[in-house]
Design a protein that fits this description.
By secondary structure, the chain is mainly alpha-helical. It has helices at residues 20-30, 45-73, 79-109. Helix 1 (20-30) runs parallel beside helix 2 and helix 2 (45-73) packs antiparallel against helix 3 (79-109). The longest helix has 31 residues, at 79-109.
């Protein structure tokens, strides 16, 4: 059995597992807005992974901008609490970015025909 790469999500089976192809789209969809469950790409892990990568990058950029301007622009009566919350959310986004990156690497390493996720229907 091969060990999962550093940063592999704890809630997703290894890419070497026979269940990976059936679970990866669910894992990606769980991290995207619910509207993606009703789209035609819901069974396309490569497309879902790309969307998720872009979304997470955008969210990280937003958190950085919010953190940089929170003290002066937020109007918060307790900006230190706001900064702490933004920092925690930013750290979670960075973890998600790492997880998505290793999952994308696993997806691209597999033959796309093995990524049939018709069991999601």
């Amino acid at each position: 059995m091969t060990n999962a790469p550093v940063g592999w999500p704890v809630d997703l089976v290894s890419s070497f597992s026979p269940e990976f192809a059936g679970q990866v789209s669910r894992w990606l969809l769980d991290r995207l807005p619910g509207e993606f469950r009703d789209t035609k790409i819901r069974n396309e892990p490569v497309a879902l992974a790309w969307v998720l990568q872009e979304r997470v990058r955008s969210d990280i950029d937003l958190m950085r901008r919010l953190y940089a301007t929170a003290r002066m622009s937020s109007g918060s009566a307790n900006p230190s609490v706001l900064l702490e919350a933004l920092s925690e959310i930013g750290a979670q986004l960075l973890r998600t970015e790492r997880e998505v990156s290793v999952v994308v690497s696993a997806i691209t390493a597999l033959d796309h025909s093995k990524l049939s996720t018709s069991d999601l229907d």
